[in-house]
Give the backbone structure.
Amino acid sequence: MRDPRAEGLARILVGYSTRVKEGEVVSIDGDNAAEPLLLAIYEEVLKAGGQPILNVSLDGQAVSYFKHASDAQLSWISPVAEWMVENVDVRIAVGASTNTRELSAVPPERQMRRQTATGDLLARAMQRSAEGEFRWCYTLYPTSAYASEAEMSLVDYEDFYYGACLATDGDPLTAWERASAETERLAKWVEGHEEVRVTAPGTEITLGIAGRKLVPCDGHHNMPDGELFTGPVEDSVQGEVTFHLPALIGGREVSGVRLRFDSGKVVDASAERGEEFLIELLDTDPGARRLGELGIGTNYAIDRGTREVLLDEKIGGTVHMAVGRSYPESGGVNESAVHTDLVCDLRLGGKIVVDGEDFQVDGKFVV
């Protein structure tokens, strides 16, 4: 029997997040462990009159790919993938890993080679999205692997996850509209200012935001959601930041990350765990050593780190910074094949100051 919360989430993804219309081509991508949610999404797209294309990845497929693919195969781009990024109207993607660390033994350079090869696809998708030609949303399907990383039972993780997505609301299609007012208010307050200063244990960093757009996020691209973000002025970032929450990147845990910036560029980087992989990531291309995003979490229903950035970057009382490509809609112009978020926790002694005025203190907004 299908979990009714998965059906509620599917209704949100199709009817609210991406607002699928009759005749639109919809790519539904996910891991086979997400079968109940993928099928529910497929049915909702059909009910909306869309044309669904279902793409399902198999357990172990990614490991086999990186184990056996030649360099030429790692650099090859499928014409199907090129067609999809240019022609689909909507993409709904569902992560459902059954082993979050299955790629931990893959040499970092092989992952970076693949990421570089697909960089143009990422850039085109982000540009089409910014121009309003393409709508997308990414979510997870609760698995034992995600629950284990979050140090929770699967039952508790399911309750936690569906609650953060508002999928348990009596009217899930309007839940995010009702929840978005505060995020929009905060984004409007910040926009038009020139500088953001973030302080926390191990962190004192300033970022220029003059002329940049503050984008409130209310469930249209990520689910769960709850943040406001911008693209900092590329050469403005100055200082040092410590990212307190561990993250899984490419199947590897990267934790205790410290980055030092000078004139917008990472000039020193270290990590307590996963440092070699972090350096490989930063050396992907010149843009990977600059920030493409500053985000501020607003979802206080997500109250703990889970090692899954989709959730952790939304935690109310945190900021996240992404090295790599900017989202064009923010006004950022940094280009890179990567976009990797890292999370700094401000709930115990942190502060966000905007043009000299306190915006958030100890994880609570004060404006």
Notes: The chain has a mean pLDDT of 95. The chain has two domains: 4-177, 181-365.
